[in-house]
Amino acid sequence: MELSAEQHQFAETIRTFCAQELGTLAQRDAVTAGGTLSNSPQVLARLAELGWLGVSLPEEYGGGGAGFVDECVFLEETSRGLAPITGYSTGLTAAQTYLKWGSELQKKTIVSNLAAGRLEAISLSEPGAGSDLGGVKVKSVRDGDEYVINGQKTWCSAAHVAEHLLVLTREDNSGTKHQGLTLLMVPTETPGLDIREIETMEPHTVNDVFFTDVRVPASNVVGEAKNAWKQLMRGLSVERVIIAAMSLGSAQRSLDDAIAYISEREQFGRKISSFQALRHRIADLATDVAFARSFVYDVAHRIDEGLEDSLAQESAMAKMRCTEIAKNTALEAMQMMGGYGYAREYGMEAQVRKSLAPPIYGGTNEIQREIIAKSLL
Ligand SMILES: Cc1cc2nc3c(=O)[nH]c(=O)nc-3n(C[C@H](O)[C@H](O)[C@H](O)COP(=O)(O)OP(=O)(O)OC[C@H]3O[C@@H](n4cnc5c(N)ncnc54)[C@H](O)[C@@H]3O)c2cc1C
């Protein structure tokens, strides 16, 4: 699938923006409090001003009205350009569920929030329910015109900076583990909600979320009560391709930086880029990235054609392979940059850290392999 001239132009414009505004470590430090924020309000505000946030979301709710391919261009290029907006992809994922199942008010709220640079979060995982999400225990009880929520969620990206959490709760225990689940839209300012950082190898990204008698109106149910599983299972292809497109951008960045570095560095009286051991690795990595790009945009294009529900295998392949390519490219780039690859100044250590979580979240890559195998065997 070939990008249109406008899409190439969009990619080029984002690339130039990132190079000019976020091209140096000093610039990135300035908008992330010295690298301690994974979401920069300033950068989100600038991107909103430019009209690039929510580019693929429907215009009637405040989005840009373009296609998912355009969204992938945005995700790839902002990831390549090191834009500190990690929560945007989480919001975009949440938006897919709201758009399919939410009320008109929910759709308008979420889409216009994202387009304005405000973030949204999605809270499914619990301490005892990760890959096996059907094991969720956070309880919701209908009480008149309200729901009361109690329990603990974990690993919630961007909860600390989001406007709402899209929370998977158990309303009914009487059926199978995939029955009786209800999705609720919970404003993060609601009394009884306690959001606490989980310290990881990255700047503040993920959180534990504790619910103590948290009350939301019954109109905050997203879709149909007790039917969340079916709702969540639709839309997974888009989530996987969102992660794939960001990983593609990240892999491209590691490759760009490795090429730039080895083209300058001299040892033994020559550029280290003249050593075959490094040249062949660059060739392999560039091949991986080129294959990944073709595949991701092909799947994105098919999503734009309305085939989303038949892309379980392809979207799992895209998520699994692109996240692994990004991780391998960052690790290989670090090795090719020698000691400097390990230094904060050169940026590759951040690329390595950033590449380790995507094979785990959004459904681990073991689970993606199960999905692929299931489609074949
Ligand atoms: C940085 C980060 C951000 C995250 N953001 C969010 C978020 O915003 N919202 C949210 O709800 N969650 C989020 N998560 C949680 C993430 O989705 C889970 O970590 C993931 O689904 C795995 O669950 P777990 O950690 O409980 O691991 P487990 O499910 O316990 O898995 C442990 C290991 O066992 C393997 N395994 C488990 N079951 C199988 C199986 N059937 N076959 C083969 N292997 C298997 C897994 O692949 C893994 O290697 C995030 C996680 C991270 C690290």
What does this structure look like?
This protein folds into three domains: 115 residues, Acyl-CoA dehydrogenase/oxidase, N-terminal domain (Butyryl-Coa Dehydrogenase, subunit A, domain 1, Orthogonal Bundle); 105 residues, Butyryl-CoA Dehydrogenase, subunit A, domain 2 (Beta Barrel); 142 residues, Butyryl-CoA Dehydrogenase, subunit A, domain 3 (Up-down Bundle), CATH 1.20.140. It is 49% helix and 16% strand. The protein is built from twelve helices and nine strands. The strands form three sheets. Strands 2-3-7-6 form a four-stranded antiparallel sheet, with no helix packed on it. A three-stranded mixed sheet has the order 1-4-5. Helix 5 packs antiparallel against helix 8, helix 8 packs antiparallel against helix 9 and helix 10 crosses helix 12. The structure holds flavin-adenine dinucleotide (FAD). Flavin-adenine dinucleotide binds next to strand 1, strand 3 and helix 12. The site of flavin-adenine dinucleotide has 19 residues, from strand 1, strand 3 and helix 12.
Feature tags:
alpha+beta, Butyryl-CoA Dehydrogenase, subunit A, domain 2, Butyryl-CoA Dehydrogenase, subunit A, domain 3, 3 domains, 49% helix, 16% strand, globular
